[in-house]
Amino acid sequence: SFGRGFLSQLWAGTTARDAIVATSRAGQAVVERLFAALRQGYGLDPDRFVAPTLARIPLGVDPRAFTCLEGAARQAARRELGLDPEAVVLLVFGRIAHSSKMDLLPLLRAMRRVLAAGIDPRSLCLVVAGWTEADPLARPDPILATLAELAANIGLPFRAVARPSEPVKQTLFGLADIFVSLADNPQETFGLTLLEAMAAGLPVVASDYDGYKDLAEHG
After folding, report:
1. Distance between CA 1 and CA 62 in Å, rounded?
2. Which residues of 45-64 are buried (b: 16+ CB within 10 A; e: fewer)?
3. 0.85 surpassed by pTM
4. What is the pLDDT of residue 61?
5. What is the dihedral of CA 133, 137, 139, 144, to 10 degrees?
C-alpha cells in the first residue's frame, strides 16, 4: 500500500499550494525517487500527472527543556540512578530494538577495544534508555538483559532505563557526557534525539546515515 499511496498523489488536479513535507534531505530524495519510479513504471506523462511540491521543513526541540547539569546537581542526579559521579557517561536513547532500530553490538565492540587499550573501566559507564518492547513493570526486557550481560563480559559498567518519563529523559541528557546513536533503520529520516542531545550541550557520535547527515557534521 506504500507505493499506492504515493501513486495517488500524481494527478492533474495538483495545484501550486499542494505539498509533501519532508523533514530531511534524505526523506525528500526518497519521495523524489518514488515519484520517478512510479512515472517510469506506469508510463505517466510528467506534464499530465503532476506531483505536489516537495518541501523540506526540519523538526525541532525547545532548547529550554534541556540543560547540562553541573556540580552538585550533576552528582546528585547520577547517584540517584546508581551512576559513578565521576565516570564518563555515554548515553544511548531511543527505541531499544536491535531488529528494527539500532544494533548496539558495534558500540560494545568499540568499547571493548577502548578498554583493551588500557582505559580504566571504572571511569566509564554506558547508559541505554528509551522505549522497550516489554513493559518493565510486567517483565524484564530480554534485549536489555542481553546488553547488560554483554557489557559485563567486557567489564563495562552498564545501566538500563526502560521507558523513562519525560523528566527522567531530560535528566539523563543533562547528566551524560557523550550521546551515541547508531540508528540503521530506513525510517530514521530525521533523528530528534540528536537535537535533544545538542540542546543539552552534548557531543554526538552518530551513524553517517539518512537524516542524521543533516544534523551532525563530522568533527
Report:
1. 35
2. eeeebbbbeeeeeeeebeee
3. yes
4. 94
5. 50
